[in-house]
Request: fold
Amino acid sequence: MRHLGSGTLRLGTALGVALAAAGTLAMAPAAAAVTPGTATVTFDCGGFGSGKATLTATQNGTAATISLATSAITSPIPVGANSVASTLTLTKNGSGSTTFTGSSNPPIPAGSQVSTGPLRGTVAAGDKLAAKSLKVVVFGITATCNATSAQSPGPFVF
Reply:
């Protein structure tokens, strides 16, 4: 009988630990929502062209990502996956700035628009970020693009 009692105690302890862990997980904060989740802006990339860009933002705590596709830059040759280095500079809360960087991209066929991201950055609750400039490096060639329109429908609010 003593052995059965010990087993019951172990089962009760394990059950108590499992319930406590489940309660902790239930109270953990969910990923924060960025509003708007998608926005557009127009870039002028000098001799590389100009055009609209679509930006998509996500957030998980203080970590945020922005993916970007733009018709402002098209690739004259195929570009392999994860070979575009990008830096997106955004105005932060109307006066400062912050950058999101990364070297992640899907394969880009010749003649297609450049897509890059997720670009990674850090945010704080309430940060308002709007695209200001984009630097894209492909095969050692750098294209620098400046925003020529306000981000629409407005800045990302984290």
